[in-house]
Design brief:
This protein has 4 domains: about 10-120, Immunoglobulins (Immunoglobulin-like, Sandwich), CATH 2.60.40; about 130-230, Immunoglobulin-like, CATH 2.60.40.10; about 235-325, Immunoglobulin-like (Sandwich); about 330-420, Immunoglobulins (Immunoglobulin-like), CATH 2.60.40. About 0% of the residues lie in helices and about 55% in strands. The protein has strands at about 10-15, 15-20, 35-40, 45, 50-60, 70-75, 80, 85, 90-95, 105-110, 115-125, 130-135, 140, 145-155, 165-170, 175-180, 180-185, 190-195, 200-205, 220-230, 235-240, 250-260, 265-275, 280-285, 285-295, 300-310, 315-325, 330-340, 350-360, 365-370, 380, 385-390, 395-405, 410-420. A hairpin with a 4-residue loop joins strand 26 and strand 27.
Amino acid sequence: MFEGRSIVVCLALGGALLAAGCGGEKSVLAPSGAALSLASTATAVSFNGTASVSARILTAQGAAAPDGTLVTFSTTLGTVAPVEVPTAGGVAMTTFTAGPASGTAVVTANSGSVGGGGVRIAVGVAAVARVQVTPTPPVIPFGGGSSLIAALVVDANNNPLAGIPVTFSTTAAGATVSPTNLKTDPKGIAQSTLTSSRPATVTVTAAAAPSDPGFGSVGPTQGTAVVATGPQPVPVVTVTPPPTPMAQVPAAFVIGAVPAPGSNTTISNVAIAFGDGTSATLGAVSGPAISVQHIYATGGSYTVSVTATDSGGGTTTAATVIAVGFQPPAGVKIAAEVAPVPQPPNTAAIVTLTATLAPASLVGVRYVWTFGDGEPPQTTTINQVQHRYDRTKGGPTFEVTVAVTVMGSSQVVPGTSIIIVP
């Protein structure tokens, strides 16, 4: 019937052309009424990073598009390859590759008249979601030290981002960070060193470089960390009171005042407050056994404090509470030793007078004697005196008095005695 002639039959399937030799070779395109959706394995990538993008086509009846349905991919930033991909099981796959420009790529796909909404993939600096800054150590010594500052740059899914330009800075007076401009390594980390003598806040900024085509259109992302300084070294101070301090008796305190270990300082001043309203400045003394004496006028409870200052301005105070015993009332007894003068008519005698203070802890430094025979008083610095009594001037009894000034105080202890001169 068709002898000697070749016959070509072209079939139209649901609006998509599937033919060979009908006006040239044609590809299979998505049927009318089909839907195309896009998905990506990543929403953010580093510079020159990659992500897989898939396009799924379903017919109006919800079935997968015929295998071989051709999908065409495109992107607003970077590249996709291959551009045209036939489906298998209703899905076409391509690879997105970011370039050296920061920004957000929008990848789209279509098959004939059927298109899909684009997927967005952040690239480079635009992919940065957080800059995590960690100092090691977080506390540097008082007076100065260094800390290693590590900045981890990640995307919204905590994936590290490589090759991101970061800048380290601090506003602390006298502090430095070096180097200041770096790029993150394959683990998303960049490190710099802070050197400071005081607390410092370090700021790390991830921002597009001037050479980046996205410079000016992509905003920066910052992270901060605070590096503290350790406490100021202070002297080591101790104060040890006497075991049984008594009023009106010198109390010996033992003071320890030494610089803080490893501080390279010296003691510049030591002061002690005895708790009774009096104090003493000892100056630049140091050591574990500094001796200081003090006399308390009366018994009671006293808080003794010692303050030491070093050449670096460090100050420490140590304190102790002592109970000072009360002394019994002070008194003085007068003893007389009479030696008659061996000349007639034996009306005169030499009397040796001795004053004894009580309690025995008291020490007299000045004795004012009155002899009771009309002679003027006599002052001595010892507790003994001799006086010539003449019976022609009275007697035989005489009232002797003495006023004793106690060492270390203004206390005067009076004493009286009646002596008989035979």
